[in-house]
Design a protein that fits this description.
By secondary structure, this protein is an alpha/beta fold. The chain has two helices and eight strands, in the order βαββββαβββ. The protein has a four-stranded mixed beta sheet, covered by helices on one side. The chain has a four-stranded mixed beta sheet with strand order 5-8-7-6, with helices on one face.
Length: 139
Amino acid sequence: MQIQPYLFFEGRCQEALDFYQKTLGAEVVFNMTFGQSPDPTMCAPGMEDKVMHAEFKVDGTNIMVSDGRCQDAAKFQGFSLSISVPTPEKAKEIFEALGEGGEVQMPLMETFYSPCFGMVADKFGVSWMVIVPGEKPEA
């Protein structure tokens, strides 16, 4: 069994894919527009160029995305995506890149569980927790 996030960007999916390629080095492994669907009933008028389904990888983690129905602004609430990085310098780089046009929810700082942790919502409203894993306590 595997659980993977599936995010709906309500009309901004291709922009999000481009952003994650730039900021996270994401590799898009699949991208199909509604117009490319073999089932013409899947494509509402004006949706031909919108992303029906795409998938990208970041360091072996798959994230699936779509434009959805393009009815409202995307609302990403009640969850965050957590990204672990090896050093505080890398955390700062990723945090600043994700935060471009977004909103800092908790600045990067040392905590009791990490030498460097922060929370930021990107320009699409997706919340990210950037963390440098700390030492595991001895049992």
